[in-house]
Design goal:
Radius of gyration: 17 Å
Order of helices and strands: EHEHHEEHHEHEHEHEHHHH
Helix content: 40-55%
Strand order of the largest sheet: 3-4-2-5-1-6-7-8
Number of strands: 8
Bound molecules: adenosine-5'-diphosphate, magnesium ion
Number of helices: 12
CATH class: Alpha Beta
Strand content: 15-25%
CATH topology: Rossmann fold
Number of domains: 1
CATH architecture: 3-Layer(aba) Sandwich
Largest sheet: 8 strands, mixed
Length: about 260
């Protein structure tokens, strides 16, 4: 069964796209067939993967009900596949025509499931209709949080948004939070980590992604860090993060199971 994962945070610059690129490659190295979908109209995901002239159609068409992601996917290195944002994705985000549209992506995935083990959705920095579609369609959300105080209040708001969307969802949602852009020597980052452990222990996983030059550079080179600098610390961190995101249990798993049975 394919797992659909939405990488979400309404804040920009926290590392969503970086996470999607590098986790996709980590998971693919672990043997998964991975598809990456760009749900940000800015189209950064394509550029970060070295696809500088992406096809004009992609997730925009999928959300408009014209086929599944597999119809618009382009091949990448290492057997991965990318679905670009498409030129009219922005219009879907602005054009709020009510609840029915919240199921556009889920319906497209049910009608034409991509033949992969995992679909990673790179979400835009907002909680608009595009993000709502991603969250409704997803089996899980992975939330990167940067190490500053605004991120903490942002996370509280995001968890609330996810709860508000629960009535729309047809299946349970597994949630994982991790620190991206972590600077261990910075006191603030350590404080934010402590606070995350206090307030969100049911979602937080131990692995962090540190702020690193290699990660900033590999985006410009259109490569994952595993291709750009395979021996660097960031590659090891993403390997561990992928492992933990997929396999580690957190306390909310038990609650979810119970609430689902009830
Ligand atoms: N851990 C990191 N270390 C260094 N630079 C990073 C890191 N994570 C992200 N960046 C850089 O920060 C910018 C924003 O990251 P991005 O992944 O695009 O965030 P988002 O998708 O949440 O807006 C990009 O230029 C990216 O290369
Ligand atoms: Mg992004």
């Amino acid at each position: 069964m394919m797992r659909t994962v939405a990488v979400v945070n309404q804040k920009g610059g926290v590392g969503k796209t970086t996470t999607v690129v590098n986790l996709a490659h980590a998971l693919s190295r672990g043997g998964e067939r991975v598809m990456l979908a760009d749900l940000d109209p800015q189209g950064h995901l394509s550029a970060c993967l070295g696809v500088h002239r992406p096809p004009a159609s992609g997730m925009d068409r999928v959300l408009e009900g014209q086929g599944g992601p597999g119809d618009y996917a382009v091949p990448l290195k290492h057997g991965m596949r990318l679905v670009p944002s498409g030129e009219s994705l922005d219009e879907f985000g602005r054009f709020d025509v009510g609840k029915a549209k919240a199921y556009a992506l889920e319906d497209a995935l049910l009608a034409a499931p991509p033949k992969v083990d995992r679909l990673l959705l790179d979400c835009p920095p907002s909680s608009n209709l595009i993000s709502v579609n991603a969250i409704v369609a997803a089996d899980e959300v992975w939330i990167p949080v940067a190490g500053d105080y605004l991120s903490l209040t942002g996370l509280a708001r995001l968890i609330l948004t996810l709860k508000r969307l629960d009535p729309l969802r047809r299946k349970p949602l597994r949630k994982r939070v991790f620190m991206s852009r972590f600077v261990a020597r910075r006191r603030l980052a350590q404080e934010v980590r402590t606070k995350l452990k206090q307030h969100f222990p049911e979602y937080l996983i131990e692995s962090v992604v540190s702020e690193s030059a290699a990660l900033a550079e590999c985006a410009g080179a259109g490569q994952s860090v595993f291709d750009y600098r395979p021996a660097c610390k960031a590659a090891a961190e993403f390997e561990r993060l992928a492992e933990e995101l997929v396999f580690a249990k957190v306390s909310s798993d038990e609650q979810e199971k119970t609430s689902h049975v009830a």
